[in-house]
Amino acid sequence: MRSLQLVNTLTAGSLLAPTAWSAAVAVESNSPSCSDTPAYLEGFPHPNPTKSYWQDPPHRIANLRSTPDLPTEQVFDYVIIGSGVSGAATAFKLLSRDPDLSVLMLEARSAASGASGRNGGHCRTGDYQLVKEWVDLYGEDEALKVGKLEQDCVNDMREFVSKYNVSSGWRNVETADLYYTKEQFKKAAEVIEFQRELAQRRPDDVPQGNPRTVYSGQDARDYWQWPEIMGAVTYTGHTQNPYLTVCAMLELGLEKGLNLQTHTMALQLTQVSGPPDASTEWEVKTDRGTVKGTKVVLATNGFTPALHPGLASTHFLTPVRNQAAAVRPGADTAQNPVFKRSSTYSDQPMGGPGDYVTVRQPGDAGAGTVIYGGGQGLSPTREQNLTDDSVVNADIAAYLRGIGRLTYGHANWGDANAAESAAAAQHDWTGIVCHTPDGLPVVGAVPGEAGLWASVCMNGHGMAWAFRSAEALVEMMTTGEAPGWFPEPFRAGRAWEAKR
């Protein structure tokens, strides 16, 4: 394969002028081989995924290899597998603590090409609505740690984007959890009262600075301007181009010495030393050769079971194919305040739980475009145990392209024929996420395999779990102890405990 010198021209979403890595090579093709596209290996990242809305155009580091050849002779302090938000944040935080560390990152496809570059553009704290369930399962102390981590993680992401002047279209927006049935809205209102009681009783332990406002019945419909809803819970959220945010993290890591190897698929992990101790080394076999590391970090999300048979055997991690669509309303949305918001609606009767909406704002690339995600309820399998993101589900695509007229109402959405014509110019894409039975990530040491660590399975909520989880993981790996704020329910070991 012919290699290209990385040019110094800044492109959309670039953060820093190339310095230490300006002589790196960019792989010209999206294929890691110099001939035909490699065959798809079941469970591993597909070599030709659908084109994500966020990745057009590709970032300048999309196909970067920091060194032309894979560094197979060096034993790295850390080998990180995966370049999404979990991997990028882990590398950035490790090298920020100690720039003398040697860190190698392996990415099977282009940089940030997994779920981090394929979601709907939300960064919000929606899972705090589960706090009553968390209290019942884990006790109040741990439940509040989970809730606080979620809000702190979103705050950390906002501060990161601001501190490093990241050009990813980060917007503070009013967001809401919307409800179509009275039963579900009643439960939501009860949770808000529960949250308020917690805040009065334990003001220092609850999530800070993001109060909820409840609208009921006609008040909700008048305020949110969605004609079919029974209620709304509003608060502050954020929208962004997630791909550009993660690429900024990777660039900062590169500035600090990260060796990034895109189009390099990890295929097998082998522990090569004797008794577990500080000198334990790992070999990671890839399609370009075998690399070595004292510690290996799995940041592989829904692809984790294919790479690690032990985790696969727990059946605790379930890959799920998510789908999104970028559509254009028939009406001009620029002056309509309804399109200045984002939302998730959990009980929509057609598409199933977890549908969500974000809108590209004036000044953004693609301003006025509405991003819809979800629709798994239309799939007999709910898209579970699928890792092929090279295709879209036609039924889900039709649903996501057409649901806007129902949710927003005709008065907001505009003429149906114009909307259908506009939608035809947009596109659909898929991405692989990972779910756990309890809805929480898997973070920490892999039991019985010294030097192997994981921050995976963000349950489609990586922008609100991963950055802070990476901070906890780095603390564990460098000090041997989890920080006091880290929730016990996130522990990686619970995957094996659930198997028993």
UniProtKB/TrEMBL annotation:
InterPro entries: FAD-dep_OxRdtase, FAD/NAD-bd_sf. Residues 333-347 have a biased composition (Polar residues). Residues 77-476 form the FAD dependent oxidoreductase domain. Residues 1-22 form the signal peptide. The keyword Endoplasmic reticulum does not apply. It comes from the Eukaryota. Residues 327-351 are annotated as: Disordered. Keywords: Signal. PANTHER family: FAD DEPENDENT OXIDOREDUCTASE DOMAIN-CONTAINING PROTEIN, SARCOSINE DEHYDROGENASE-RELATED. This is FAD dependent oxidoreductase domain-containing protein. The lineage of its organism: Eukaryota, Fungi, Dikarya, Ascomycota, Pezizomycotina.
